[in-house]
């Protein structure tokens, strides 16, 4: 079964054209070429055009939305293909042709040039998976806490208002972690939005999950159409086939048409991550973080276990560190909603989140994949 899964991943890697890697300071696109394939590269105003002869990849059209690349399109013709890459402003292009055995590949690195960046030192197309959590034990741990919603965006409303509960719990978690010597970065510390535009708001939060930090936890409160649902659930990034989960994903991604649009974009990222080994390794750690937090919250609160799921939440779509989104209870459940309204219960929840984070960080060194 594991072999089959690996085979599936390898096949997907072999078929992806281009293979995409999102890295600190640059986006890498790798094009696998046949023995007789030729190519030309032309850079225009905000666009990079690659013309290939002797290869017929599948047509593709995808939003990337990395700091360097907006989107790309693969147009396949009779004898070749053209790839249009829409670049963000101030991006430098570096191409190199790699050869190993019978294989050849064109590596296109798109680098931010507006500020000093870490540039790739090796032209290997895919770095070997290297989880962030378990490196230098003396390295400063930095936890990012994202209290969901805020300001004009109340989030779920029931016996409590989501934006107030998420902030209160996050502030409590911050205090508990700081007491243990952990540095904490908050996406917000007051009742405010990061932007009145929900896409920008979520984008700014997501940007804080960068590789200088150790892990990212978004805290949310749930609601259900009736008022019977209750319990705690934890998400890591990925796609889902479960339509009941998607309804909630739409809501957390901004609701309405925008929520659906951002969900589709996140799903596109999810499909691409399949061929990004580093991202796959990170998802393993994200799932482990989800399990650790979920177990800790359940044992402290005795709440209903709604499980651990993967789902295309926009705010954790590009995380390069273990990242999860937790739903700590239902605002509109008559019992749970009222519980969330009491400081002592919020303290219990916060303590269990902090405990889970500490356990994850401290076990990082002995974790095996
Ligand atoms: Zn929410």
Quick overview of this protein structure:
By secondary structure, the protein is α/β, with parallel strands linked by helices. The chain contains eight helices and 15 strands. The protein has a six-stranded mixed sheet, sandwiched between helices. A five-stranded antiparallel sheet has the order 3-4-7-6-5.
CATH topology value of the largest domain = Aminopeptidase
The percent range for helix content is 25-40%
Strand content: 25-35%
Task: Domain count, please report it.
Answer: 2
Please, could you describe this protein's structure?
With 369 residues, the chain is an alpha/beta fold. The chain folds into 2 domains: 2-112, Immunoglobulin-like; 142-366, Aminopeptidase (3-Layer(aba) Sandwich), CATH 3.40.630.40. The protein is built from 8 helices and 15 strands. The strands form 3 sheets. Strands 11-10-12-15-13-14 form a 6-stranded mixed sheet, with helices on both faces. The protein has a 5-stranded antiparallel sheet with strand order 3-4-7-6-5. Strands 1-2-9-8 form a 4-stranded antiparallel sheet, with no helix packed on it. Residues 6-14, 116-136 and 365-369 have low confidence and may be disordered. Zinc ion binds at residues 148-149, 155, 162, 220, 252.
Feature tags:
369 residues, alpha/beta, Immunoglobulin-like, Aminopeptidase, six-stranded mixed β-sheet, 15 strands, 33% helix, disordered C terminus, binds zinc ion
Helices and strands, with pairings:
Blueprint: H1 2-15, E1 19-23, E2 26-33, E3 38-43, E4 47-53, E5 60-63, E6 69-76, E7 80-87, E8 91-100, E9 103-112, E10 142-147, H2 162-179, E11 183-186, H3 198-207, E12 215-222, E13 232-237, H4 243-252, H5 256-273, H6 277-301, E14 305-311, E15 323-330, H7 336-340, H8 343-363
Parallel strand pairs: 10-11, 10-12, 12-15, 13-14
Antiparallel strand pairs: 1-2, 2-9, 3-4, 4-7, 5-6, 6-7, 8-9, 13-15
Helix pairs in contact: 2-8, 4-5, 6-8
Bound molecules: zinc ion (ZN).
């Amino acid at each position: 079964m594991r072999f089959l899964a690996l085979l599936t991943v390898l096949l997907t890697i072999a078929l992806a054209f281009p293979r995409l890697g999102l890295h600190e300071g640059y986006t890498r696109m790798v094009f696998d070429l046949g023995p007789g394939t030729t190519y030309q590269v032309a850079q225009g105003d905000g666009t990079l055009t690659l013309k290939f002869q002797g290869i017929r990849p599948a047509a593709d059209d995808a939003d990337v939305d990395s700091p360097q690349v907006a989107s790309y399109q693969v147009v396949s013709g009779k004898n070749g293909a053209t790839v249009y890459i829409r670049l963000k402003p101030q991006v430098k292009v570096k191409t190199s042709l790699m050869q190993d055995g019978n294989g050849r590949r064109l590596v296109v690195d798109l680098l931010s040039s507006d500020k000093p960046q870490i540039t790739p030192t090796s032209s290997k197309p895919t770095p070997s998976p290297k989880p962030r959590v378990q490196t230098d034990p003396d390295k400063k741990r930095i936890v990012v806490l994202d209290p969901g919603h805020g300001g004009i965006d109340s989030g779920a409303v029931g016996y409590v208002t989501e934006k107030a509960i998420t902030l209160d719990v996050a502030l409590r978690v911050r205090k508990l972690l700081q007491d243990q010597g952990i540095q904490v970065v908050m996406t917000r510390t007051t009742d405010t939005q990061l932007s009145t535009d929900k896409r920008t708001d979520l984008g700014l939060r997501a940007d804080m999950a960068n590789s200088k930090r150790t892990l990212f936890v978004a805290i949310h409160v749930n609601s259900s159409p009736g008022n019977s649902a209750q319990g705690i659930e934890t998400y890591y990034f990925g796609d889902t086939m479960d339509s009941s989960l998607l309804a909630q994903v739409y809501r957390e991604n901004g609701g309405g048409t925008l929520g659906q649009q951002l969900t589709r974009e996140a799903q596109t990222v999810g499909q691409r991550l399949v061929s990004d080994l580093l991202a796959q390794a990170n998802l393993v750690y994200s799932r482990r973080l989800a399990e650790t937090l979920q177990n800790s919250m359940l044992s402290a609160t005795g709440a209903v276990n709604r499980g651990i799921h993967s789902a295309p939440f926009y705010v954790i779509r590009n995380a390069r560190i273990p990242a999860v989104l937790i739903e700590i209870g239902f605002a509109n459940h008559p019992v749970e909603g009222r519980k969330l309204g009491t400081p002592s219960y919020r303290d219990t929840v916060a303590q269990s989140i902090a405990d889970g984070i500490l356990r994850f960080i401290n076990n990082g060194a002995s974790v095996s994949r």
